[in-house]
Batch of 2 targets.
Target 1
Amino acid sequence: MAFFGQIIKTFLETKHNLLPQEPSDPAAAQENQLRTLLETAKDTSFGKFYDFAGLLEADDIRKAYAKRVPLHDYNRMNEFWWKQQRKFPDITWPGKPDFYALSSGTTGKKSKRIPVTNEMLECTQRVGRAQAESLANFDLPAALFEKDILMLTSSADLEENKFGAMEGEISGINVSNMPGFMEGYYKPGLEIASIPDWDSRVQRIAEEAPNWDVAALAGIPSWMVMMLRKVIEVNKLKNIHEIWPNLAVYTTGGVAFEPYRKSFEALLDHPIIIMDTYLASEGFYAFNARPETMSMQLALDHGLYFEFVPHDADGFDETGTILPKPKVLDFREVVENKDYALIASTPAGAWRYMIGDTIKFTDKEKMEIVITGRTKYWLNVVGSQLSEEKLNAAIKALNEATNSQVKEFTVGAISTEDGNDYYHQWVVGLESGELSEEEAEKIIDAHLKEVNKNYKVARTKALKGIKVKVAPADRLYDFLEQSKKKGGQIKFPKVMTEEKLTELLGFLK
């Protein structure tokens, strides 16, 4: 009998039943988060410059905060504040950060350095505990709570910078600061997780896999599929449940799961619970808290404060660049099924910070969201207005219509030979089997015309057609490897510039 597992399950269920899983008063919770952040940082350079002490005396603290403190993207925050914080204490948050998260970027962009304070780590762990407690909603067997959890992260081998802080990708930092009670359950363990080379790390995981009893997986789906394939190959299996029969939960995140669903499920013997998370370099913002949905509950009461900019003409121009004076809303003013750019203030010393992601509320009463894309992953060169969500849906339609397994893709606008018009160039990474490029062009084009009126209009004007290049998915990852961007938390960009797309096409030749 799973004695300790039953104790853990009973504890989670009891806490779940006795305590609310979301704030009973979200508005008060968010105001409290903002007030706590301002109070803590009022004596920092940033706090004094923007008079946090005065803001704390305002009748409406949220309106006063939005009026006095401007929106910041990474470049602005880094140039005016975070660069100084690497050398001096008390710039945007008390003390100096012990860690910096190197963002994965996309193809060849210079890594950003996002401060990760001890308070930010605590905040992330609070959100993680809230998601763990929500497992009471899923009626899992008690034995599962005694099994191993395999987290596929970037390397936990952090490097010390010249200012004495440790640097690495956020998943590696989080693993390096894992709570003590997790050590007995966490796989592959810090030794293997610290192997810098992705392929060597995955090889070791595959070799050690028979020694583990994995019940839960966590990681970005593209790399999770590659890792599971390697475990199956090395151990000569038909599916992953032959070696991990108790595998019951997969926590995904980082990118939309749907384009990878078919490839992932093909590696299983039977369906498992799939939970989404919103964990970025800047914070852990939302998590899947109940079954029968992939929507995620926004973390309103865990140390974070949120605002939202409409991802339309009220907030952005047609290139995806935020307006000089965009409309900014708090969560009380948002509506369901509309895209918003997420703005967060955090205990890492990020203030009214534009993450770069777009989200939409699927259930405002439950405060549930889904990620719809990136503010810059917005293909609108000729007015087609294609969000990442619509691009993902087109690939899903392609997979269903052709019974294909397209795992990765990217798209961009390329000018015609005369330079007067454009066409959309798609590159799709196929997991297995064959796919006709001509058939793919027809299916994607027809789907987008049907679901997006702006695309349909654009196709009668300057958008003259689409082209599809089919390649093995591994070749797309090889392209990333050129810039040392393979594995871990790295994401293949869904939209590329004409220059980068031309480079990719040349690589594939």
Note: The longest strand covers residues 350-363.
Target 2
Amino acid sequence: MTPFLRLPTLTLALLLAGCTLGPDYQRPTTTVPVAYRHAEGWQAAAPKDLEMRSDWWRRYDDPTLDRLMVQLNQRNQSLAQAEATYRQSLALVSQARASLFPTLSSSLGATRSGRGGGSGSNTVIRNSNGTSGTFSSGGTSTISNAYDASLGVSWELDLWGRVRRQVEADRATAQASAAELAATRLSLQTQLATNYLQLRVLDAQQRLLDATVSAYERSLRLTQNQYRAGIVTPADVAQATTQLKSTQADAIDLRYQRAQLENAIAVLVGEVPANFQLAAVKTIPELPPLPSAVPSTLLERRPDIAQAERQVMAANAAIGVAEAAYYPDLTLSASGGYSASQWGSLVSTPNRFWSIGPSFALSLFDAGLRRAQVESAEASYDASVAGYRQTVLDGFREVEDYLVQLRTYGEEAGVRQEALDAARRALQLAENQYQAGLIGYLDVVTLQTTALSNERTNLTLLGSRLSTSVQLIAALGGGWDGNVTPPAPPRRP
């Protein structure tokens, strides 16, 4: 059997005898509750819409919010950065996988070299075979040509699974990067939805204050007329003026707050704030029914938990990579080609050469380097396991926090609405009594301030309930389907 025929047989035998070092991955154990503690009173979605959707923001039924989300997904620069990082991780997987296959190389070269030389007259003699020599009275100089063409193949056999573990680690890292991309997208979508809903609440507060300013202007004119008629004192006019100016100042302050939210939304959708504007509307999105969920699904539906688990997988595979350093590397190589001093006779049997054979490489002494590398990999794995378990605990805590917030806000909203209704009734009675001359204007001002405060508090509470609903949806995974191997995102210009 020729050497070329023996090489595949030897390779197959070595591959069959190969193994993969390091522990196989198992998901770290975590404590998962049967149900959420604060889920009682949760306003769940209708049966036809129980599942989370990737376009979760459509639950708020706002076309402007839908349009902004499309712009965010297409033009947000933080999202573009995360997509580029994901593409880079995919390329690293391909790089690692390439080490499983042989490397084929070729070369074609021509060189011209000389030796010797001296002073004196030179004589050039050209031979019939194409070579030439230069002779001088003071010495001898020779010039020669060399041509070669070769083809080689080299293959480092993965006997101990080092390359396979590296591919496994890089694949897990790529999956973690995909989960990080999903987490980044969800975080940005959450910011956009929260800012937009708060902006709409400010629009409602602006309408309330504008209407209140108009009402206070009418009250001031009425009080001034009564003062000129001698019915009220100058103190009543001063109180009406103070109340009007304070409310006007509050209305002006809201414009600054709205501009800040508008600028934040502009950056999220990839726009220059100077070129972006959202017109005010007269409606606020309603608090939507929220999807039902059980704790066990949280491990698959939250991208940050999936990212932490894939980091554990990568750290686990890295232990095998480190342990493989204890064993020798086997490389099979073969090369062949032609070498001659004349180009015309390069490809001929006398000028042919070849070589083939295996080579082993093993570090005999490294002063504990490999042991330290294995210990480092094991410690990194332990750290990633702890990080994964902490991420799971934080996920459950966030869901419980937002559940109890929503339930508490709901109860508070009912009580505050009753307080607002009572304040409105009291104000109406006071205004009637004031017009009848039964009470002073100070009593009216006090009740007007109380009613306005309750109106604004109710709107602020509605904003808090809307923001918390967004946070709860995000804490439940935001409709992410748990896919950590999505297709490569398109390259951005």
Note: Confidence is low (pLDDT under 50) at residues 1-5, 12-17, 45-50, 123-137.
